[in-house]
Amino acid sequence: MNDLPALLVAVPLLGSVAVLLAGLARSRTGWPVAVCTSLVQLGMAVVLAVRAFGEQPVRYVVGGFTAPFGIELVIDGLSATMAVLVAVVALGVLGYARVAGPRSNRFYATYLLLVAGLSGMSITGDVFNMYVFLEITGLAAYALVASGESGRSARAALKYLLVGTVGASLFLLGIGFAYVSTGTLNMADLSTQLAAVGYTSPLVQASFGLLVVGLFVKIALFPVHTWQPSAYAGAPDSVSALISALVSTIAAYALIRIVFTVFTVEFLFTNGFAQTALVAGATVSIVLGSVLAVTQREIKRMLAYSSVSQFGLVVGAIAVANGTALTGAVIHLVGHAIMKGGLFLTSGLVANVAGARTIDEYQGIAKRFPKESTAFGVLALAMVGVPPTIGFVGKWYIALGAVEARSWPLLVVILASTLLTLAYFARIIERMFFHEPDDVSASGGTTTAATAVTDGEGIDAESPLVSSGMRATVLLAAVLAVVLGVAAFEYGQLLEPTIERLLS
Description:
single chain, mainly alpha, two-stranded antiparallel ribbon
């Protein structure tokens, strides 16, 4: 039980190796091994979350070395939330990927490697260890994007690799500046040492800037977002859902840790330029991400630009730097993972059954595929922020935090983002539910989608292109978007002690 924090990272790593070894004996053992590993991962994350929401965080030092010299793992309410989120989404996408693919053992091994990296980023209390897990996450994500069979996937992965490497390099350089200033890498110790050095030290300020800009690249804020639309649109549908739900989400969580656990809120108040830079980055991403989403015709690219806007909201909450806004940021991260992951899965399902990947091709599909269309509609309205969905609760907290901080320009942008989000989702919903099918959309799924399934195991009798697991996953995401919205206010109260420690 005491080694659970370390096992949370070790189990998916071991599972990744087990998938490769099992593949030597039988080629189709990857999926069951990955599912078993994910179930164990989820169980451990839930147990740790129960313990972490107590009065004090759960702490574990790797190898028994005393912190700050050893690598410390810290699980509080925030990191436990991220760990559970990673485990839940990873397991859900596996249910979809069984038939949707990719289905090679190499894919499942890389998949579990990504889960290990994300889990490590969620619970580490050491900035260099965070960089190591950031690189593991990045390398696995590049490989997963490239797992598609088209040249588009390869080009998207290469672009992702080049831009992601720049972000990781900036992050590492920022760590180096912090280490030169303080001689430590432990987050808690760094916080104390940076305060002693002085928040106006040029070295400390440079470290903050490099770390934040490096994470901006990983989060995909405008204008360093250029890798994201290509990666999301070019990757297989299962991969698009996984990385859209988790990779930028955990990078945004890392930004919260860097800003508040390492540099603290006092750094923001001392250096007004830092807070201004965060507000500026948030504002530009919210507005331009939404505008670019409105101009898209391809569904997956539209969803990608939507993420640029949605993560701008989270960065805006970080800039506000009060308890209400930070609570909203965490809730929005959870909600975005469920909603956006569900939307990518649903768009993939619609592509398989209706051959539709553009907005024009969604015309009238609700009459032929009501379940898939309803799931997409619910998730889209949740992204807009319609009550009682979790999308509404996250935005409500962030907007309320902006009011408390008297950040009126940011509040106006947050409210405007809701209208912009409505603009690009309303046109899809209108085409789906209030138009008659045209001749192209009525012709059914594509030949490519049909031939992608090479065995009949687990395939839904309603369509040769999808499985019952695929349908169940997207319907569950739609249900969770509503159910979590009802529970989010209670969760916000549960998170209060963790937020108070972050801001103290």
